[in-house]
Amino acid sequence: EVQLVESGGGLVQAGGSLRLSCAASGFTFDDYAIGWFRQAPGKEREGVSCISRSDGSTYYADSVKGRFTISRDNAKNTVYLQMNSLKPEDTAVYYCAAEATPGGSCPYSLDSWMPYEIDYWGKGTLVTVSS
User: Fold this and answer.
1) Cβ–Cβ under 8 Å, residues 58 and 51
2) Residue 109 has what pLDDT?
3) Do residues 88 and 100 touch, judged by C-beta distance below 8 A?
């Protein structure tokens, strides 16, 4: 059974930090680009960050560049999202996502990473940033 299990969400004040984790099982982790989407109330789901298996390249949405850092531990089949300097506009449900791609490579731009391309989703974890 394929599973992506997120953890680490919660309530934090603006300027604070959180670290999300995504533990993957049931599929060949190395063959997938792994990353995070988020969906705020009343808004569409958007790509936040992605990390390539092939060379470890990382990609970020413009709105989180310089504040969020994605990493992956292939031995543990786990991906992390370190979120610093959080803002109220970061409030959303954050979803771990996996897409089968050649070499587990991410799209060139997060703007072109569409939800319909994702093969597996986690159930999501809520991040709430208070002002």
Assistant:
1) yes
2) 87
3) no
Among 17-21, 82-86, 99-103, 118-122, name the one with the lowest average pLDDT: 99-103
DSSP 14-64: TT--EEEEEEEESS-GGGEEEEEEEE-TTS--EEEEEE-TTT--EEE-TTT
The set of residues, in sequence order, having a beta carbon less than 8 Å from that of 90 and lying 6+ positions away, is: 38, 64, 83, 127, 129
User: What pLDDT digit, counting tens, does each position of 64-91 carry?
Assistant: 999 999 999 988 999 999 999 999 999 9
The backbone torsions φ and ψ at residue 118, rounded to the nearest 5 degrees and listed phi first, read: -75, 135
Helix intervals (H) in the chain: none
- Both tokens of 86, joined, read 């959080």
> Whole-angstrom Cα distance, residue 61 to residue 78?
21
More confident residue, 126 or 30: 126
Residue 28 vs residues 32, 76, 87: alpha-carbon distances, Å: 7, 12, 35
C-alpha separations of 91 from 4, 88, 116, 130 in Å: 21, 6, 22, 8
